[in-house]
Amino acid sequence: MADAELQQLFAAGKAIEPDVAAELQSIIRLHSISAEDLFYKWESYCIKLDVDAGDALTLDNVRNLKKNMLDALATAATAPLAGSASAVKPKADRRVASTPRAASGRGAGGDMYGMLDGLMPSTPASGSKLNRRVAPGSAGGSALRRRMETSKISSSPVGGMSEQLADMGGLPSFNDRPNPGEVLEVLNGQLASATPPAAPYPEPRVKLTAASDQKKMAYKPLAMKLSEASEILDDRIDDVATLVQQHHKLDDDVFGNAARQGTTEIVAVGRVASDAAEGRLNAASLVLETSRRTGMGFRVPLNLEALPAWSVFPGQILALRGSNATGNEFVVQELLPLPLLPNAASTGEALAAHEERMRVRDPDAMTVDEEEGTPPAPPLTLFFAAGPYTADDNLDFAPLHALCEQAADTHADVLVLAGPFLDADHPLIAAGDFDLPADLPDADAATMATVFRHLVAPALTRLATTRPHVTVVLVPSVRDVLAKHVSWPQEAFSRQSLGLHKAVRIVSNPMTLSVNEVVLAVSSQDALWALYAEELARAAPGDLTARLCRHLVEQRHYYPVYPPTDRARLPRTGTDDGLATGAVLDLSYLKLGEMVNVRPDVMLTPSALPPFAKVVESVLAINPGYLSKRRGAGTYARMTLHPPKIEGDGLQGHCVFERAKVEIVRI
Fold first, then answer.
1. I need a labelling partner for 393 at 20 to 30 A (CA). Which of 21, 352, 484, 616 fits?
2. CA of 143: how far to CAs of 45, 148, 170, 450, in Å?
3. Which of 465, 249, 273 minimizes the C-alpha distance to 339?
4. Reduced to 3 states, what is the DSSP secondary structure of residue 270?
5. 100: part of which helix (H) or strand (E)?
6. Nearest-angstrom CA–CA distance, 399 and 381
7. Beta-bridge partners for 117
8. Is 347's pLDDT higher than 60?
9. For residue 350, with 0-12 CB atoms within 10 Å meaning exposed, 13-18 middle and 19 or more buried, which class applies?
10. 263, 249 in Cβ contact below 8 A?
11. What are the residue boundaries of the DNA polymerase alpha/delta/epsilon subunit B domain, all occurrences included (predicted)?
């Protein structure tokens, strides 16, 4: 394998050290893989380490990657032997003589809330107390921790969940987390941060306006028809073809069927797909799927050898210029760029009204000297976070409480929380292995709404009560056990019986809304991981995360991947089978996931990828990370938004990416 290919993939713009290059060559020869496959393994390894792939290219790290690959190979080789040995007695080790409740000692006390000692399927605990200050290692710790110290015979029969959590070892307490409040990344660090006021603002400084029609999200899930799904996929290709024709000013006779043999150069529009039934997209399986109107739905292999650089993924709509002289493949000569949506803009009058709303309107505030002029409005503070909101070994939601405390201390104006809140992939919720609080009036009739009201809502209520100006936005997830709407795009879940403060708004998923003049787009669906897992690229410019975000902006869709990523290739969960919920797409209503009218100023895309804040095509893309990881504390994003400079009464762009300071903060 030529060193030039390694240089291009691993360290474009700087030379790879000779010993590092030799080690990479050794891995390629040892495992008989291509340099591109090795690069994908390297990126995945760096994501697990939470480091930048370019900066981490050292000899020690490459050797550690080599060791991990050898260990994985050895594990895969021994797995069939272990499986055949255990097949003799498949259920003998999992038989349980009695329920774990008798061995857990409920009366011994409570954990962080005193309500987590074992919720359904058993009768709720009667002796637990609401006490968030009990140390996890104390004698009055949670029943989960006590069960982790008991013998195997007293473990939970529901999927062996207590055994799995015990195998994870003792997780560190959230209060003992390293470097809380550490700023991991800053965008526009030259801008000043907001200074907390001397007293809370008396009323909200932002106005929320829905830019998406939430009523359309109230469709009937799990009622998809194949004919409707096919029409939606076809219409998307035809819609993009119309946009390409108008943008590039092309005649009708320029467009053609990529699957039809001919020497004439044409422009073909279609969807990227794979002709393999399973596995990752590769150059050999890459095909273009046409619509029924333009190509009778045929698929044709793509030849991209003439292009110096490209990146594609399944479901991507492309406009290609080329020809199919042999009838066997479409040889691409040019990749036509898709037109972008226009930038969001407002009139000078509207911007002035929003700035006036941002000013302190405290009647006891000092009056302004007219000769000195009106001082600039204080900047807004916005917090962005995404679930899960608690670690795998508990349901105390300590990270959420810490986030609300930070929002209160900084007098945040907006707190946007993306689900899941009660995560279906959380091992305790999946097994029903936790307790309700002892003071419930009717514990036997408790539902998941009851759990939300006692575990999640108090933190939000306390924040809204102490800071009357704050606006909290909740975005559901397909992993939320609260949501009756189980597919994406997803309707907002009902606030009935949740005990939420009036300052809390619940929106759909995805959702586009205006925060004053700022167009904010939010989707809790992890599109970035799906793009990362499915993308096929060659010499693609720019860093990985910016390229993934650019796909979303160019495709005008919050989840453009189709078919969605196989659940087995998603990050593993702590449940018994380890499989994530997945995308749960409803193809009949996939159009509701499109960006409409304008590009968002801020695009919130929570993902399992490392958190970041980047400017992509004038869009401020933010991945706040997860507030809680499976085994430790996570991150959130904090934005300081300065008021715009008003120039006249005409329309002017918002340019949020120039006046917003974004920090990725460790909770």
1. 484
2. 35, 8, 14, 20
3. 249
4. strand
5. helix 100-104
6. 19
7. none
8. yes
9. middle
10. no
11. 383-614
- Look up residue 93 and give its two tokens: 């080790």
What would the pLDDT profile of 614-654 be if each residue is shown by its tens digit?
Answer: 999 999 999 999 999 988 889 999 999 999 988 888 899 99
Q: Tell me 588's DSSP state.
A: G
User: Phi, psi at residue 145, to the nearest 5°?
Assistant: -65, -35
Q: What gap in Å lies between CA 377 and CA 523, rounded to an integer?
A: 30
What backbone phi and psi angles, to 5 degrees, belong to 195? Answer: -95, 120
The residues that bridge with 615 in the sheet, in sequence order, are 620
The 3 state secondary structure assigned to 6-38 is HHHHHCCCCCCCHHHHHHHHHHHHHHCCCHHHH
**Using only C-alpha atoms, what is the Rg of the chain?**
27
First to last CA, the chain: 44
Tokens representing 438?
Answer: 């002892």
Angle at Cα 56 formed by Cα 50 and Cα 61, nearest 5°? 95
| Angle, in degrees to the nearest 10, between helices 18-31 and 35-49 | 110
Identify the pLDDT of residue 317.
97
pTM (2 decimals)? 0.75
- If you ran DSSP here, which 8-state letter would residue 659 be given? H
Phi, psi of 474, deg, nearest 5: -110, 130
Q: Where are the beta strands (DSSP E) in 389-510?
A: 414-418, 471-475, 504-506
Q: 371 and 639 in contact (C-beta within 8 Å)? A: no
Closest CA to 203 of 468, 539, 578, 571: 468
Q: Rounded to an integer, what distance in angstroms lies between the CA atom of residue 480 and that of residue 662?
A: 28
- Angstrom CA distances, 198 to 58, 62, 642, stand at 49, 52, 19
